[in-house]
């Protein structure tokens, strides 16, 4: 395995991603990780990520210089190179001209890292500081017009560093450079697959759980579903899942989830039908934050009640993914955040967490889901918010509005699927704004709801762009919605990106 030490760079995730694409298992750890922990991981190589700081600024992130004596190959990238340069006695200084974007790289030495590079290559730069002269024993292996040391190496100790970013697509040979580091310098073999992950994860969960009992809050989304099936493979009937149907799910979703998990996977599954309970709490409430709080709190109540009925439970399964862990910063923060995922379970439950997916990205979880035989409807389901349609109905939420929105949403999804677009879109869904307007139907005046359609593409939901849906698709969705749902006489399409809007409407 490889460790990526994170110095806060905007591309740190991407480094981990690229390494995994080469079928080498990799973990990203904070720059401050103690050496003992790094040694205990048995890493074959370490990558220092980039970062926004200057190595000279106060409190700049740094690692224990003992790391260079471990005998583990290191590749420093951008800030990682400057840190290596400074810690080993080179000179780092602010660059007279910042280098940003596509840059021509002159390769001076085709060493193990650069063996497949041409004399000049394109690379992607993004830096203010630079290594002016390398530390003793280092060779300058590449240069650019503005950076005299664009790459350096001390091959005898397997220390390599590049000022540019091999992990981004704008460095066309970047993946080859990473591959040379992993395979030729660190001796990795690229054998990490979902099957090996699955076997390891099942063993690990068995060891962790022993003969104890495990609980899982199942939402039917891909993350919690894959986590549940994985844990079920490990501990069988000692796992019980709780699925809370708060009445704000999509049309037919609850029935589908219960059927798949009971029929196909024979998982112990408690389905709690709680429509009334949630809707009565939401009655008359229009403030979006209050709605969220009510749904969140009620969810915890139902979950706790069901957990109590099961007696002593020792473990709780969470479908936490790798980006969630990284975004939370530290392992401790990840645990706190995970508890929030199911709504902050009480301290006295003393549940220990099982998070079998916490090293995976979303697409890896989907690959694992396919490997375990989860049906496409689960594996490829678009993300759906915990509070469900509660964050897609503005104003008061009531049974009538939920029913209208479920119908409109089902029509939109059906047409999107028919057009072969469902898997290509991050999220596509209908929204019911709190407004009615006048229309005319069969010579009759109508005064009915407007449905808004939203379709966005995104990498991580932090930013999103609206999808340029074909007019024909919009047309068929619109005409079906107004003709099949009496309470709707107008359909609009949201053409706002995030920011300034958000993905959901609330
Ligand atoms: P916004 O609307 O903030 O949404 O742009 C970003 C992404 O998060 C999803 N979302 C949620 N997911 N619980 C969830 O599990 C929530 O409370 C929640 N609110 C928003 C949303 O669907 C989008 O993918």
Tags for this model:
single chain, 506 residues, alpha/beta, Rossmann fold, GMP Synthetase, Chain A, domain 3, 3 domains, nine-stranded mixed beta sheet, five-stranded parallel beta sheet, 15 helices, globular, binds xanthosine-5'-monophosphate, glutamine amidotransferase, ATP-binding, nucleotide-binding
Polypeptide structure, described:
The chain is of the alpha/beta class and 506 residues long. The chain has 3 domains: 2-185, 3-Layer(aba) Sandwich (Rossmann fold), CATH 3.40.50; 194-379, 3-Layer(aba) Sandwich (Rossmann fold), CATH 3.40.50.620; 398-493, GMP Synthetase, Chain A, domain 3 (2-Layer Sandwich), CATH 3.30.300. 35% of the residues lie in helices and 23% in strands. The protein has helices spanning 12-21, 35-41, 79-87, 174-185, 194-209, 222-235, 253-264, 275-282, 288-309, 322-327, 331-341, 362-371, 376-379, 399-418, 471-484, and strands at residues 2-6, 26-30, 45-48, 74-77, 91-107, 120-133, 139-143, 151-154, 159-162, 214-217, 239-245, 268-273, 315-317, 352-354, 427-431, 436-441, 444-457, 465-466, 488-493. The chain has a 9-stranded mixed β-sheet with strand order 2-1-3-4-9-8-7-5-6, sandwiched between helices. Residues 328-344 have low confidence and may be disordered. Xanthosine-5'-monophosphate binds next to loops. Xanthosine-5'-monophosphate is lined by residues 383, 385-387, 391, 427, 461, 498, 502-504.
